[in-house]
Specification:
Distance between the termini of chain A: 9 Å
Number of helices of chain B: 5
Order of helices and strands of chain B: HHEEHHHEE
Radius of gyration of chain A: 17 Å
Number of strands of chain A: 4
Number of helices of chain A: 2
Largest interface: A-B, 24 and 25 residues
Number of domains of chain B: 2
Oligomer: heterodimer
Strand content of chain B: 15-25%
Largest sheet of chain A: 4 strands, antiparallel
Structural class of chain A: alpha+beta
Strand order of the largest sheet of chain A: 2-1-4-3
Protein backbone atom coordinates (compact mmCIF):
# COMPACT_ATOMS: atom_id res chain seq x y z
CA UNK A 1 0.00 0.00 0.00
CA UNK A 2 1.31 3.42 -0.89
CA UNK A 3 2.10 5.58 2.17
CA UNK A 4 -0.43 8.38 2.65
CA UNK A 5 0.80 10.22 5.70
CA UNK A 6 4.07 10.65 7.55
CA UNK A 7 4.07 11.89 11.12
CA UNK A 8 7.21 13.66 12.25
CA UNK A 9 7.48 14.33 15.97
CA UNK A 10 10.15 16.57 17.36
CA UNK A 11 10.74 16.80 21.09
CA UNK A 12 12.87 19.61 22.39
CA UNK A 13 14.78 20.16 25.60
CA UNK A 14 11.70 21.63 27.32
CA UNK A 15 9.78 18.37 26.73
CA UNK A 16 7.52 20.15 24.27
CA UNK A 17 6.56 17.96 21.35
CA UNK A 18 5.96 19.33 17.90
CA UNK A 19 4.01 16.89 15.77
CA UNK A 20 3.86 17.47 12.03
CA UNK A 21 1.51 15.50 9.81
CA UNK A 22 2.88 15.36 6.27
CA UNK A 23 0.20 14.43 3.72
CA UNK A 24 2.32 12.31 1.38
CA UNK A 25 -0.63 11.79 -0.93
CA UNK A 26 -0.35 15.45 -1.97
CA UNK A 27 3.34 14.94 -2.61
CA UNK A 28 2.60 11.94 -4.85
CA UNK A 29 -0.04 13.97 -6.71
CA UNK A 30 2.61 16.58 -7.49
CA UNK A 31 5.40 14.12 -8.23
CA UNK A 32 3.49 11.82 -10.62
CA UNK A 33 3.01 14.43 -13.40
CA UNK A 34 6.57 15.64 -12.84
CA UNK A 35 7.97 12.12 -13.25
CA UNK A 36 5.84 11.60 -16.35
CA UNK A 37 7.15 14.82 -17.84
CA UNK A 38 10.73 13.95 -17.03
CA UNK A 39 10.43 10.28 -18.04
CA UNK A 40 12.24 10.71 -21.41
CA UNK A 41 15.17 12.30 -19.61
CA UNK A 42 15.10 9.58 -16.92
CA UNK A 43 15.11 6.83 -19.58
CA UNK A 44 17.97 8.43 -21.50
CA UNK A 45 19.94 9.00 -18.27
CA UNK A 46 19.36 5.41 -17.19
CA UNK A 47 20.52 4.02 -20.52
CA UNK A 48 23.60 6.25 -20.42
CA UNK A 49 24.45 4.83 -17.00
CA UNK A 50 23.72 1.29 -18.27
CA UNK A 51 20.82 0.88 -15.86
CA UNK A 52 17.57 -0.57 -17.12
CA UNK A 53 15.22 2.41 -16.54
CA UNK A 54 12.10 0.21 -16.39
CA UNK A 55 13.65 -2.07 -13.82
CA UNK A 56 14.82 0.96 -11.86
CA UNK A 57 11.29 2.35 -11.95
CA UNK A 58 9.91 -1.00 -10.80
CA UNK A 59 12.34 -1.21 -7.87
CA UNK A 60 11.68 2.42 -6.94
CA UNK A 61 7.95 1.76 -6.94
CA UNK A 62 8.39 -1.34 -4.76
CA UNK A 63 10.48 0.64 -2.27
CA UNK A 64 7.83 3.35 -2.19
CA UNK A 65 5.08 0.81 -1.54
CA UNK A 66 7.12 -0.91 1.16
CA UNK A 67 7.68 2.32 3.09
CA UNK A 68 4.27 1.88 4.68
CA UNK A 69 4.51 1.15 8.43
CA UNK A 70 8.14 2.24 8.72
CA UNK A 71 8.96 3.73 12.07
CA UNK A 72 12.12 5.44 13.32
CA UNK A 73 12.46 6.85 16.83
CA UNK A 74 15.58 8.41 18.24
CA UNK A 75 15.76 9.88 21.73
CA UNK A 76 18.85 11.52 23.10
CA UNK A 77 18.83 13.09 26.54
CA UNK A 78 15.54 14.98 26.68
CA UNK A 79 15.35 15.59 22.93
CA UNK A 80 14.03 13.21 20.34
CA UNK A 81 12.76 12.74 16.85
CA UNK A 82 10.29 10.22 15.57
CA UNK A 83 9.15 9.49 12.02
CA UNK A 84 6.24 7.17 11.31
CA UNK A 85 4.98 6.46 7.83
CA UNK A 86 1.37 5.32 7.47
CA UNK B 1 -6.35 -32.37 32.56
CA UNK B 2 -6.71 -29.42 30.27
CA UNK B 3 -9.85 -28.15 28.63
CA UNK B 4 -9.16 -29.49 25.14
CA UNK B 5 -8.42 -33.01 26.36
CA UNK B 6 -11.60 -32.97 28.43
CA UNK B 7 -13.59 -31.94 25.34
CA UNK B 8 -12.09 -34.81 23.33
CA UNK B 9 -12.96 -37.31 26.05
CA UNK B 10 -16.45 -35.89 26.32
CA UNK B 11 -16.96 -36.28 22.55
CA UNK B 12 -15.73 -39.87 22.88
CA UNK B 13 -18.12 -40.61 25.72
CA UNK B 14 -20.99 -39.09 23.76
CA UNK B 15 -20.12 -41.28 20.78
CA UNK B 16 -19.40 -38.33 18.49
CA UNK B 17 -15.93 -39.70 17.71
CA UNK B 18 -14.44 -43.17 17.91
CA UNK B 19 -11.36 -44.20 19.92
CA UNK B 20 -8.98 -43.83 16.95
CA UNK B 21 -10.12 -40.27 16.33
CA UNK B 22 -9.86 -39.46 20.01
CA UNK B 23 -6.34 -40.86 20.09
CA UNK B 24 -5.33 -38.76 17.09
CA UNK B 25 -6.83 -35.61 18.58
CA UNK B 26 -5.05 -36.13 21.90
CA UNK B 27 -1.77 -36.80 20.10
CA UNK B 28 -2.25 -33.56 18.16
CA UNK B 29 -2.89 -31.71 21.41
CA UNK B 30 0.32 -33.04 22.88
CA UNK B 31 2.41 -31.57 20.07
CA UNK B 32 4.38 -28.48 21.15
CA UNK B 33 2.68 -26.25 18.58
CA UNK B 34 -0.81 -27.38 19.55
CA UNK B 35 -3.22 -24.77 20.77
CA UNK B 36 -1.30 -21.87 19.27
CA UNK B 37 -3.08 -19.88 16.61
CA UNK B 38 -1.65 -20.22 13.13
CA UNK B 39 -1.72 -17.91 10.15
CA UNK B 40 -4.01 -20.03 7.99
CA UNK B 41 -5.92 -21.53 10.85
CA UNK B 42 -5.05 -25.11 9.90
CA UNK B 43 -2.70 -25.64 12.81
CA UNK B 44 -0.05 -27.18 10.57
CA UNK B 45 1.96 -24.01 10.11
CA UNK B 46 2.19 -22.54 13.57
CA UNK B 47 4.86 -20.01 12.72
CA UNK B 48 3.66 -16.84 11.04
CA UNK B 49 5.92 -14.93 8.69
CA UNK B 50 7.41 -11.87 10.40
CA UNK B 51 6.45 -8.50 8.97
CA UNK B 52 9.04 -6.21 10.51
CA UNK B 53 12.66 -6.08 11.47
CA UNK B 54 13.07 -4.24 14.76
CA UNK B 55 16.31 -2.65 15.93
CA UNK B 56 16.41 -1.28 19.47
CA UNK B 57 19.37 0.45 21.04
CA UNK B 58 19.25 1.54 24.64
CA UNK B 59 22.24 3.38 25.95
CA UNK B 60 22.57 4.66 29.50
CA UNK B 61 25.38 6.93 30.43
CA UNK B 62 26.15 6.64 34.11
CA UNK B 63 28.63 9.51 33.96
CA UNK B 64 25.80 11.84 32.96
CA UNK B 65 27.84 13.64 30.33
CA UNK B 66 26.31 12.15 27.19
CA UNK B 67 22.90 11.30 28.58
CA UNK B 68 20.74 8.32 27.70
CA UNK B 69 20.08 7.50 24.07
CA UNK B 70 17.30 5.35 22.72
CA UNK B 71 16.85 4.22 19.15
CA UNK B 72 13.87 2.24 17.99
CA UNK B 73 13.62 1.39 14.30
CA UNK B 74 10.94 -0.74 12.68
CA UNK B 75 11.63 -1.67 9.07
CA UNK B 76 9.05 -3.62 7.06
CA UNK B 77 10.53 -6.83 5.66
CA UNK B 78 9.00 -5.82 2.34
CA UNK B 79 11.24 -2.76 2.33
CA UNK B 80 14.30 -4.95 2.86
CA UNK B 81 13.19 -7.16 -0.01
CA UNK B 82 12.71 -4.15 -2.28
CA UNK B 83 16.02 -2.71 -1.10
CA UNK B 84 18.07 -5.76 -2.06
CA UNK B 85 16.62 -5.54 -5.55
CA UNK B 86 18.60 -2.32 -5.87
CA UNK B 87 21.71 -4.49 -5.96
CA UNK B 88 20.48 -5.86 -9.27
CA UNK B 89 20.52 -2.35 -10.74
CA UNK B 90 24.21 -1.77 -10.16
CA UNK B 91 25.92 -1.90 -13.57
CA UNK B 92 28.53 -4.62 -14.05
CA UNK B 93 31.19 -2.00 -14.71
CA UNK B 94 30.56 -0.39 -11.31
CA UNK B 95 30.66 -3.80 -9.62
CA UNK B 96 34.05 -4.56 -11.17
CA UNK B 97 35.42 -1.23 -10.02
CA UNK B 98 34.10 -1.85 -6.51
CA UNK B 99 35.62 -5.34 -6.59
CA UNK B 100 38.99 -3.92 -7.56
CA UNK B 101 38.83 -1.44 -4.68
CA UNK B 102 37.92 -4.23 -2.25
CA UNK B 103 40.75 -6.44 -3.51
CA UNK B 104 43.19 -3.55 -3.11
CA UNK B 105 42.28 -3.53 0.58
CA UNK B 106 43.16 -7.22 0.72
CA UNK B 107 39.60 -8.42 1.20
CA UNK B 108 38.86 -11.55 -0.83
CA UNK B 109 35.27 -10.73 -1.67
CA UNK B 110 33.54 -10.82 -5.05
CA UNK B 111 30.48 -8.59 -5.33
CA UNK B 112 29.53 -10.07 -8.69
CA UNK B 113 28.77 -13.36 -6.93
CA UNK B 114 25.96 -11.76 -4.94
CA UNK B 115 22.71 -12.39 -6.75
CA UNK B 116 19.39 -10.74 -5.83
CA UNK B 117 17.78 -14.17 -5.35
CA UNK B 118 20.46 -15.05 -2.78
CA UNK B 119 19.75 -11.84 -0.93
CA UNK B 120 16.03 -12.54 -0.94
CA UNK B 121 16.71 -15.96 0.51
CA UNK B 122 18.83 -14.31 3.17
CA UNK B 123 15.94 -12.01 4.08
CA UNK B 124 13.58 -14.97 4.29
CA UNK B 125 15.90 -16.56 6.81
CA UNK B 126 15.97 -13.37 8.90
CA UNK B 127 12.74 -14.51 10.57
CA UNK B 128 14.79 -16.62 12.96
CA UNK B 129 17.23 -13.82 13.65
CA UNK B 130 17.59 -12.53 17.16
CA UNK B 131 20.62 -10.56 18.28
CA UNK B 132 21.06 -9.37 21.85
CA UNK B 133 24.12 -7.39 22.78
CA UNK B 134 24.70 -6.14 26.31
CA UNK B 135 27.74 -4.05 26.93
CA UNK B 136 28.60 -2.67 30.31
CA UNK B 137 31.59 -0.68 31.33
CA UNK B 138 32.39 1.87 34.00
CA UNK B 139 30.62 4.81 32.45
CA UNK B 140 27.96 3.42 30.18
CA UNK B 141 25.60 0.56 29.57
CA UNK B 142 24.46 -0.29 26.05
CA UNK B 143 21.81 -2.77 25.02
CA UNK B 144 21.22 -3.65 21.38
CA UNK B 145 18.39 -5.88 20.24
CA UNK B 146 17.71 -6.93 16.66
CA UNK B 147 14.77 -9.23 15.99
CA UNK B 148 11.89 -9.89 13.64
CA UNK B 149 8.27 -9.58 14.71
Amino acid sequence: MIPFVAVVSLRGQESRTLRIWVPLILLWLVLVPLVLLLSPLIIIGGLACRVNPFRAFSVGWQILMALHDTEVEIDHRSAGVSICVF
Amino acid sequence: MNEHRRQVLQMLSEGKINTDEAERLIAALEEPSAGKPSENGSGSEAKARPKYLRVQVDSEDDGGREGPTKVNVRVPMQLLRAGVKLAGLIPAQALHRANDAIHEQGIPFDLTQIKPENLEELIDQLSDLSVDVDQKDRESKVKVKVFCE
